[in-house]
Amino acid sequence: MVNQVQRGDGTLSSRSDSSAASASGGDSSKESSRCSTPVLDADRTDRLRYKMRRRMESGDHWFSLEFFPPRTASGAVNLISRFDRMGSGGPLFIDITWHPSGDPGSDKETSSMMIASTAVNYCGLESVLHLTCCNQSKDNISRHLSKAKHLGLKNIMALRGDPVGSDWEEEEEGFNYAVDLVKHIRSEFDDYFDICVAGYPTGHPEAHSYKEDLIYLKEKVAAGADFVITQLFFRAETFLKFEEDCRPSGSPCVCVQGYQSLRQLVKLSKLEVPEEITRVIEPIKDNDAAIRNYGIHQALEMCRVLLDSGRVPGLHFYTLNREVATMEVLRQLGMWQEDPRRPMPWAVSAHPKRKVEDVRPIFWGSRPKSYIYRTQDWDEFPNGRWGNSSSPAFGELNDYYLFYLKSKSSKDALLVFEVFTCYIAAQPNRKGHKVMCLPWNDEPLAPETNMLKDELEKVNTRGVLTINSQPNINGKPSTDPIVGWGPPGGYVFQKAYLEFFTSSENVNALLKVLKKYEPRVNYHIVNVHGRNLTNAPDMQPNAVTWGIFPGREIVQPTVVDPVSFMFWKDEAFALWIEQWAKLYEDESPSRMIIKYIHDNYFLVNLVDNDFPLDSCLWQVIEDMFELLQTGLDTGDEQATIFPY
């Protein structure tokens, strides 16, 4: 619901500044929770309440998704993966509930604060953090709000909260009503946070009357709330009457997933399930699939009535941390929009201080969450160009098992070359299991990388173990579904790039071959001990992705930076041990093979600067193998030319 509530005198009250709300221009109507193309953040015209207003003015319906913190660390890993999948459908925002018994404001991986922070910083999702008055002093609440602001959270859902026991106990040093929490947030943090409050279409269970509860809702709005999300309901007419009575708009929806989930929802919301629903559900209560199908049907019918009324701009879904039913409803409503366009070639963070960031080294292309983690303490982020920093302050990555960085790699070493090849080919290995990820790549091949699939498969079978690559692109439209990024009407460019691990024998041959490709090909070669060789002029960064857009300067979002590469190599080599070798027993053959590669192989990156021509990098690799074969055929030993 958007904050536009009727006062007692019949006028309308709205905190939104319409001039600021429309400042972002004509392409705003398709905004989602994904962070938009970075721009200067002088007046925060990107804030959630303005996004809502722009969508209302343009007539574009939106949806939002609610999640709760999981109980276990593995559940947190799964939930973050679900954020990535469900975020692709274009929710305007997500929200994370607050559970007083689960230490919600702590640094635990299962806390509400950390889950919401991860959604913003590592998944790039506009997020609303619930905050309740329950068992909290005023000082504790202020500390939670300060921490949320520091973590980049910009939106709070202010709630009284459910009592821990059967009855609410007075908070002597805290607040007993949501309206007091709203006032406190505005008093202590002024207008920094967008504030959401709860509305009850049938009245709060503890209110003396429905009309009295409407008065309380308007008090919360007058205290500084920006929009309202209502409690769930089972009939569309329930909400439409409520909307008519208080004149806000927006609507929550729940897709029944199973009998137990329905019972839990009813218990939490203190609502009665309509008799016509229980009559259908009772006979099939042991058949979750049947109940889910019925729930999808009911949700679709109700959502269509709400949207067709012209009085509901958005739907809020209680997902129960599941995705199938919610996604199916949204697809059938035509609201699930997987836009292939990307604001940047890499995953964008939604933290306010990173709003201007538009350049990153390419090395973390498949590990964006790790890059964000290692640069989280930066005060400023590159904008326009990377520059030539002699000592970028990348944080140490000592804990490879932080829940939002944890790899999904499976325990399956077999032959290492085969693992890489099966990953590239998306084919089953000899045990019949598909290799869907690697420690350096948590997801299957991106569509862009698929353009190189045949060549990548060939070189991996021969011991060039690729972990990052991109094709050369010469002036493709920015709307191209595979390589496009940025606003429409532009053109994008790329230099061919290849990054891989390979043996010292291959490296010695490669260095000989590379002499005939200079200066067209830039290279950087390093081992785990830091011995390295590069032909990068004066250790300068090399732009490998750039775009030209109407009315803007050239944007170069991806670079190959020799200094940053030395920080990346520590992480890249450590992944062999931290996320692969440790899956196996000490002294086991699999672990010994992986450790040998870690200790003896080199990490190589190659850039073909002549982007208008077909990439020469595959010929470079072929020449390397031919040189090695020539040496074997003649019986000559390869001289070691890499400096030790």
Automatic annotation (TrEMBL):
Q: Which domain of life is it from?
A: Eukaryota
Keywords, comma-separated and alphabetical:
Allosteric enzyme, FAD, Flavoprotein, NADP, Oxidoreductase, Phosphoprotein
NCBIfam families recorded: fadh2_euk
Look up and give the organism this protein is from: Neogobius melanostomus
Q: Please list the cofactors this protein needs.
A: FAD
Q: What InterPro entries does this protein's entry cite?
A: FAD-linked_oxidoreductase-like (IPR029041), Fadh2_euk (IPR004621), Mehydrof_redctse-like (IPR003171), MTHFR_C (IPR053806)
Q: Gene3D superfamilies given for it?
A: 3.20.20.220
Q: In which pathway does it act?
A: One-carbon metabolism; tetrahydrofolate interconversion
Task: Please give a single GO biological process term from the UniProt record.
Answer: methionine biosynthetic process
Q: Provide the Gene Ontology terms for cellular component.
A: cytosol
Q: Under which name does UniProt file this protein?
A: Methylenetetrahydrofolate reductase (NADPH)
What task does this protein carry out?
A: Catalyzes the conversion of 5,10-methylenetetrahydrofolate to 5-methyltetrahydrofolate, a cosubstrate for homocysteine remethylation to methionine. Represents a key regulatory connection between the folate and methionine cycles.
Instruction: List, alphabetically, the CDD domains matched.
Output: MTHFR (cd00537)
Q: Tell me, what is one Gene Ontology molecular-function annotation carried by this entry?
A: FAD binding
State its Enzyme Commission number(s).
1.5.1.53
Swiss-Prot/TrEMBL catalytic activity: (6S)-5-methyl-5,6,7,8-tetrahydrofolate + NADP(+) = (6R)-5,10-methylene-5,6,7,8-tetrahydrofolate + NADPH + H(+)
State the similarity comment: Belongs to the methylenetetrahydrofolate reductase family.
Task: Name any one Pfam family assigned in the record.
Answer: MTHFR
Look up the signal peptide feature and give its range: none
Q: How does this chain assemble?
A: Homodimer.
Positions with biased composition (Low complexity)? 7-27
